[in-house]
Amino acid sequence: MARGKTFRALGVFSAGIKLAKLDFREPLMRRRIVELSDRQKKLASIIDHTLLKPEATEEEIFAVCKQAKDFGFYSVCVNGFWAKFAKHFLKDSPVKLCVVVGFPLGSSEITVKAFETAQAIAQGADEIDMVMNIGALKSENHELVFEDIKSVVQAASSRPVKVILETSLLDDFEIARACEIAVAAGAKFVKTSTGFSKGGATVDSVQLMRSIVGPQIGVKASGGIRSIEDAYRMIEAGATRLGTSQSIAIVTDTLSLDQVSQAY
Questions:
Q1: Which of 89, 155, 171, 179 is the most exposed, having the fewest neighbouring CB atoms within 10 Å of its CB?
Q2: Residue 191 annotated in active site
Q3: In the prediction, which pLDDT does 33 show?
Q4: Catalytic residue among 69, 96, 113, 220
């Protein structure tokens, strides 16, 4: 791809969006060989490499896509605006695209979440991470919570849906009830946190979630997972997927994120 060619020319974005001209040439996406041990590869394979901050740029989204391909992370997790863009750079790789819905508050109308989901799937999403309606759960409007999740599951057209509970805002009874509703509505995972509230994943919340959903449903720990020690605590508690923006530092363990990122 010629230097300075915009992503509008690639058909990555809708017409009418003004984009910076960046030097994102296709050869840059060729996989770099990263030497990892079997233990590191296994850990990488359950990580959703995440970039959800509102100020994320095209260059940063491009970088996390390349990092995910190089290190063998399970997926890249991004906001819906970046879905088509990220999918373009993940093509021809085993890395999945995970897109958030109703993020980060979960208080969108049911129809809005369903629409967001359908759009994400149309743009290439392989998985959906939705924020449940937290206020409805705390108001004990369990029917609305069920319908909210079910609408996303149906719009996802058989793609796995992870339900973000935001466990730091819930007591144990509410966490348990949310897990039961999520499973009944057809979700494939329950997830601890958005990373944008007052707390993230804890060992206690992951253990509780695992005890409620049983062995057949996934548990994703996210929020505050910054070290390999954090990662293994969550896995030992029952997590089968990890969401983090510190994926490289965790997997490489001995290298800082800054040191590794210099290669990009």
A1: 171
A2: yes
A3: 64
A4: 220
Q: Is-catalytic flag, 220? A: yes
Burial letters 187-207, b for 16+ CB under 10 A, else e: bbbbbbbbbebeebbbeebbb
Judge residue 180's burial from the number of C-beta atoms within 10 Å of its C-beta, 0-12 exposed, 13-18 middle, 19 or more buried: middle
Report which of 207, 134, 151, 164 is spatially closest to residue 52, judged by C-alpha positions. 164
Which tokens go with 63?
Answer: 């970088």
Which of the following is catalytic: 129, 150, 162, 230?
129
pLDDT attached to residue 35: 83
What's the confidence (pLDDT) of residue 37?
87
DSSP H stretches of helix in the chain: 38-44, 58-71, 83-90, 110-122, 134-138, 142-155, 172-184, 203-213, 228-237, 247-252, 257-261
Q: Residue 224: phi, psi to the nearest 5?
A: 85, 10
Catalytic member of 70, 188, 191, 230: 191
**Low-confidence stretches of the chain (pLDDT beneath 70):** 1-33, 254-264
129 is catalytic: yes
How is residue 36 written in tokens? 């990892």
